Structures are given as C-alpha cells and as structure tokens.
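Person: Please work through this fold.
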Amino acid sequence: MANILSVENLTHHWGDIRLFNDLNFGLEEGEKAALIARNGSGKTTLLNVLAGFQAPDGGSVTVRNGIKLGYLTQDPVFAAGQSVMEAIFNTDNDLMTLVKNYEAAVESGNQKAIGELVGRMDTLNAWDYESRVKQILSQLKITNLSQKVDHLSGGQVKRVALAAVLVNEPDFLILDEPTNHLDLEMVDWLEEYLGRNRATLLMVTHDRFFLDRVCNVIFELDDESLYKYQGNYRYFLEKRDERQNQRAQEIERARNLLRKEQDWMNRMPQARATKAKYRIDAFYELKEVASQKSREQNMSLDIQTSRLGSKVLNLDAVNKQFDGRTFIQSFSHKFVRGEKIGIIGKNGAGKSTLLNILTGALEPDSGSVDLGETVVFGYYRQEGIQPDENKKVIDVISEIADVIYTGSGKSLDAAQFLRYFMFPNEMHHVLVSKLSGGEKKRLYLMTVLIRNPNFLILDEPTNDLDIFTLGILEEYLLQFGGCVLIVSHDRFFLDNVVDQLFVFEGEGVIRQFPGNYSQYHSEIAKKRQESAKERQVKAAASPVKEKVTADKPRKMTFKEKQEFQQLEADIARLESEKSVLEENLSSGSLDAEKLLSASNRLGELLAELDMLENRWIELSEL
C-alpha cells in the first residue's frame, strides 16, 4: 500500500509544557487508525498539526500530493449568518455546486430551476452522487437546509460539520470525537459507513465499540512519545499492558544498577577522571531511565456518599407534552437503592425532559413525582461546565467546599482534591479557558461529586473524557451504593455499568428493558429477522397479480428514476456487506457471540435484498 501521511521529528509545546517530542510515524492508504491518550496529552493539538491548522514547534508533516483531506474538528465553527446548505456545500467542486443548487431549488420549490438543473444532473451523471449526499443528510437527521447555523445547538452544529466532511468524499479523513452528540442509530450508521469507506482514517474517539469494529491501527500518545499497535482496541489493551510491564521491569533494573554506578561516581574525582568517558555518559543515561515512573499515576474515585433512605423516588403515570407533541406518556417507575439504569433513544425523543422532571426542574402535565427526603442529586449535564472561563481551576473547587471527604473518611483540601483527580500542582492556577475539552469535563465531574450525591444522573458523561478516565468512572459507578441514571450513546459504557434500560421509542412511549445494551440490541435484531421471514412467507403465499399493460408503455417518473438509482446503490452496498459477512462466517475465527451476531445480520440482509431487488425489477420493466 502507498504511504499517505509521513510525520518526522514532530515536536510541540503548550506554554512551558512539552506535549510531544520527536514523533515519527506514518499512515498507509486505507488504514483505519485511532489516536488514544489521556486528556490534556495533546490529541487535538496533534490532529490540528496534521491537518495543517496549526504549525508545530519542530519537525514536518507530509501528506501525499493529490490527496483530498477532510477534517472534523472537536468544536466546529461556521461563519455567522451561514445557512446549513452553505455550511455543508462550501466547496468549489463543480459536481458539489450543481448538487447544492439542485437541493436549494428543491428546498424552495422552484420548479423552473429544478427543470433546468435536471438536465445538467443527467449530463454530469450527478444522481448517484446526489443520492449519497441525501443518504448522509438523512442519517444525520439534517432536514432543514435553509436554517441558519447560528440557531443550531452544539450537537446539531457537530452533525452539520460531520456531514460537510463526509459529502465531500475525502481520501484522508481526520475526525476528532465524531460520535459526540450522535444517537445510537446514527453511531451504528457512521460505524458501518466508515467501515466500508475506502478513505484512510485517523480519529480520536472514546467509543470503544467503535474502535473495535472500525479501526485496525491504534496510536497511543503517552509521555510525549507515540506507540503504534497493529490491531483493534482489544489488541491494544493487551499489548499496552505488556509494554507497561516491560517498561516497569527496565526501570527496576536501571534502579538496581544505578546503586552500583552511583558508588563508582561518588569516588574521588582523580579516580573517576582516569575512567572511560563512555561510562560517565552511560551513568547519566541510566539515571534518566531510573528516574521515570514505573507505573502510571491513576485517578482513584472514592467519594463519600450521603445516606440514602429506603424511599428514593416514585413516578406514577407521568405525562408531558410540548406544543401538542407527547414526550412522556403514562410512565411509572419506583426507583430503589442500587439501581443502575441506562437511557437510550433518538435525539429529541424526550430523554432530557424526563431528567428535568426527576430533578424538579420541570413539572409533569399529570401524574406524580414523589421524592424521598434523603435524596441528594448529582446531575452531570451534557452541556458541561458553566463557571467563569477566567476563573482559576483551584477557585472552581474551593468556592464549593473547603474540605472534601472521601469514602474512607479522609479529608482533602481543594489542592489535594485536584491532585486526586489528576490535576498536578502546576495546573491549579491555570484558567479554566486554557483547559482541554476533556479536562473541563473532568473538572465538571469533580464539582458534581464534591456534593456527596446518592442519586447520580449522568447525561452523556462519556463525551470528551479519555478512555482511561472512563474505565475508572465505570469502576466507581459499579461500586456506587446509590441510584445511577445514565443517558449515553456509548454502548461499551452501557454494557459495563447498567443492568436495565429505559428505551425511548417515540410518541412518549418509554419501554423498560431488563438488561444491558448488547442484550437489548440482540433482541431487536432477532425480532427484525423474524419480521423479515414473515414478510417473505407472506410474499411467497400472495397470488401474483397479472400485469396490466397500456397501449403505450409507461415511462419512469422523475421520482421513480431517483428511486431506481438509489435502489442500485443500496443493493450494491448490501451485497458488499453480505460478501464480507459470508467470508467472516466461513473463516472459523469468530467467537460464539460474534458468530451469532453475524448470522443474525446475514438473515436481515437477505430479507432486505429480496425486497429491494423485487422493487428494482418492477421499476426496470417500465
């Protein structure tokens, strides 16, 4: 494979802190790579440098000539007054401009312009491209192209930015937290899209399912250096542990040898001067190795929890509507101590509405909310930290409490509490505005836990937190004695923490499912497969209607022509996925769980293909 990216001796600082030093690595065409590191290590800075948005302090970045690069930033910004249409189709590409003009004409209902553009679309064979654009916009739930970007939420802006990158079909994709603000359905689609897309990929993501299923290369940025692992996330965990064990052994050997060499160095200068210079140089190199940390310092969550009585929170027949639309319909649940519940559903289905009703920020239209007297909520909101950006980190904590107690009863002052959460002394007087996105979220988590809650509500807690912090948070939640309610699209996180789900199915219906996300997903897949088989049986049993032919054969309408082209694209995509599945099933390398999942998906695919091909035959005969 041809090399698409080459990085040589790359070095960069953040103020006085060196983020990375003399990095040397590359990417081959078609590789799907992820960048993993702790918050504040320089992941986003490295992506900015690779994309040419930021100049490094030293070294070089070379992207192969002729390569079209697409970059999704962590916090996208668009020009004031720009419409969604302008934001997505902001390019000089002739084909893209034609599709943009066509979409604008359709959006405005300008029949004259549509008539003129249809011919040009035919001439340039732009329908296939237009259908791919439509698919991306549809999957990302972008429907109002005339809306101003200024009026969108942060999550909507991120989805518009993702669409703008994908519709341009770049050869090299750099994505910074692409799954943030996407619901599970969108994440599933993006996972499948990137998996079959031929573009080379480098991304930062906390979604471990995503890493496992999409990536075949992992880069770890650690202690200013970069390590490459040729495999998925599970392979990375195994090899990273081996690397750290080996490093710890090397440091221990260096420390043992250093004692002997230190004794030699402490002798009289005259004696040392007669010795070889290489041994003196080797001593200082040995000292540098021995001074390293043998193990990474890890955050440990052990925060005191307020006592929770036997009565927690009872919901009885709760209903809530806005502008005639039902978000919660006759929902009842009696929360008990120790419950860990995940909330899933499409964006806008009413998840945040339920959380606001639970905490008393919103009154239900009918039904009752009965809160126990001992309940202390800890509400981690999706929008994150809200303090003055010009405050110092230590002031954010000290203004809430002078003394914080751990679960073991140990008292900590603000500085000790910050160190406990992996904020070293040199960061205590840094302004909040200077923190990375993940560091801000970690600081925000501190402000939630400092109040010793016994009912934790976490709305998208995995956004921007690094994978290592997520693992520690998972361990803490598993041991948490109170109630936990989590809204998340992170399937790995949900599988590890929750034991039941509230599934927002739309129209105010909230289904209570006893199990984690994977168990729920398996049940849904099974039902879809059964439903597809039923449709096949009914189709086979239905009498074939005789085709009535007119004197003159009817031609395809414009809409049918579009549908026909979309059918061809969909059939090709499903056939490709089917080939991959059949190859995997016959490889003998899948474990039982993956074998079952692949088998279920194959059944779904066959049913979908059957329906699409029948419709294709109908249209092809016009």
User: Anything to note?
Assistant: Confidence is low (pLDDT under 50) at residues 545-551. The two ends are 44 Å apart (CA to CA). The first helix runs from residue 43 to 50.
